[in-house]
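User: I'll paste a sequence; please echo it back and then give the predicted structure.

Assistant: Echoing your sequence first, then the prediction.
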Amino acid sequence: MSDSALAQLRALLGPRGVLTAAEDMIGYETGARYDRGHALAVLRPATTEEVSQAVAICVRHGLHIIPQGGNTGLVSGATPDASGQQVVLSLQRLTGSFALDADNRSVTLGAGYRLSEVNRRLAAEGLSFPIDLGADPAIGGMIATNTGGARFLRYGDVRANVLGLTVVLADAAGTVLQLGGALYKNNTGVDWRQLFIGTSGSFGIITEAVLRLHPLPRDQAAAILVPSSGAAVLPLLRAMEDRLGPELSAFEGMSGNAMQAALQHVPGLRTPFAEGLPDYAILAEVSRARRPRLGEAGAEDLLQEVLADIIEERPDLLVDARFGAHDRIWALRHALSEGVKAMGRLIAFDLAFRRGDIMRFCDQMKAQMPDRFPGVTICDFGHIGDGGVHFNLVVAADSALATDPAQEAALRDWVFDVTVRDFGGSFSAEHAIGRKNQRWHDLYTPDSHRRLSRALRAATSPAGLGAVTFG
């Protein structure tokens, strides 16, 4: 970086706002899963105006910007590459605004707020931003990657819950756009918000957002179900949806291997299966925003009644159902990622299918993996209710798959090819696109889509922005 650019950025952002020492930047250079790059500098603006001016300085000096939210992403979308020539622009300090409108069920806030802090503040008003994740990301990063989570079945993804955005473009002026607002309905023109949701910060930097909120559940219950087979999972889901409608808020699949990993590596976790883990289980949740009316069954009684009806009418679907404290049941589900990561070297996939194809894909992988790639342990889990699966593969730390990038690439090529070409699925369900997924984005995205992406990027942020090139 030139002395002139550095001096301008320090004059703008102050001593806390520009980091250049290696020991200060390492946390911004290191991703949540194995990735590590080298930044030219880390910028930490505290307002939208500071973001705008910092971006303008970077553009004038030809500096490539990597926007970074909470740095919890898993596809190298928020960390710099190894060149040492990219500037990380952290949203961490963008927490100055937090304006709750309880009547409108919306909140206007800075993009640097963590999800946990947002929901802590909203709980006092009986509201929440109900995107349930194992990590604690920043709101800006959640929007840029369009996260989904474990309750997508009930609330949808982030895209469905964003009303407005403030965005800074990577152009010579650091142009600031106000897109949408607090209105739920506004069909007066092109909805430009969608250009910046789920596109990994490649078209502009989100600095503020208006989020749609939902009432906190006031009556909820969960159970762990053991289906009779993989083929029974989707009929079981449909049977529960028929009886529960929108009160079915989660239907999460957990393989026996994934559960075993969590129980072995996460302290304090208790097994619901003292006699031994099943090959596969489902976490099902019922929730309501209100308490039961007089004479009406509560959530736990309702869930038990529905499952009893299903067992009576379709005894071929369900082998067992375990009930317990709601938080304890969810603790097992939320511990799966940590447990699997602790088993060995993790090769993770975030895939999406038509709901009826998930179990068929997993069964095919379990049948073919031992011959194609021996030594791989499949620890899959995911969001069966919305077609998503975290297809996690664990290998020994000293295996060729862990030490040879070409071997890992061959494995990824095969899994993605089966996903996309054989099943018509997606190679990125909710982790978005980062450098880890760039190769397969280029492979599977039609040329016509890539031409359109290049044109849109040239119009919005013509300078270097983001870790991924959609065009």
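The chain has a mean pLDDT of 95. DSSP finds 17 helices and 18 strands in the chain.
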